[in-house]
Every structure is written in structure tokens, then in C-alpha cells.
Amino acid sequence: MELAKYMRGRVTVLALEGELDSATSGEARKRISELVPSDGAALLDLGGMTYMSSAGLRVLLLVYRQVRQLGVPLALARLNPDVAEVMTGTGFIDFFTVVDSVDDGVEALSG
């Protein structure tokens, strides 16, 4: 699993690529937690995610709890259909603002 961080105005974009599963979730959780801003907004770009297991869902839930505690708005962008299906089936999708593109996410979080 790869993780890249870049800024779009006040929005911290964290782009995840690869598989988020039991083998990668511990390190992913640690790195995402360190990169989540304490102010501004956060956007998780999941367009490069090829697979997400229940361990990956747990990572997203923990990130969601972290940003809520910090008062930082969070959105998810570019969910591939398989990941979206898993999140919808478990009800996790309802916790997040979900957008089609990074540009849409930046706009939603900036407005």
C-alpha cells in the first residue's frame, strides 16, 4: 500500500494506492493518523485502491473518529466500485461525504 500527501488550498489530500487489508492496515492507520491535519480539511483519495478488507474498513472508521474529535471535515474521493460496494453493504459509506473526484472533494470541503 502506498500513501502520498499533498495540499490543495486548505485541504490535505491523502492518496492511497494498492490494497488495504490485514497485512497493510496497521502501517496505513499509523501513517494516515500522522498525516491528518489538526485544522483545515482532509480528503482521502481512494482512486488507487484495488481492494479493501474489513481491516481496511476499520482503518477508515478510526480515521473518521480521529477527524471528528479534531473537528476536521473529511471526504472520500474516487471510490472504485468494489470498494464502494463493500462500504455501502456495511453501512460505512453513511459516515462519509463521498465525491467523484479530488476537485469535487476540494470544492465540497472548501465551501
TrEMBL record:
<dbReference type="InterPro" id="IPR003658">
    <property type="entry name" value="Anti-sigma_ant"/>
</dbReference>
<feature type="domain" description="STAS">
    <location>
        <begin position="11"/>
        <end position="109"/>
    </location>
</feature>
<protein>
    <recommendedName>
        <fullName>Anti-sigma factor antagonist</fullName>
    </recommendedName>
</protein>
<dbReference type="InterPro" id="IPR036513">
    <property type="entry name" value="STAS_dom_sf"/>
</dbReference>
<dbReference type="Pfam" id="PF01740">
    <property type="entry name" value="STAS"/>
</dbReference>
<dbReference type="GO" id="GO:0043856">
    <property type="term" value="F:anti-sigma factor antagonist activity"/>
</dbReference>
<dbReference type="InterPro" id="IPR002645">
    <property type="entry name" value="STAS_dom"/>
</dbReference>
<comment type="similarity">
    <text>Belongs to the anti-sigma-factor antagonist family.</text>
</comment>
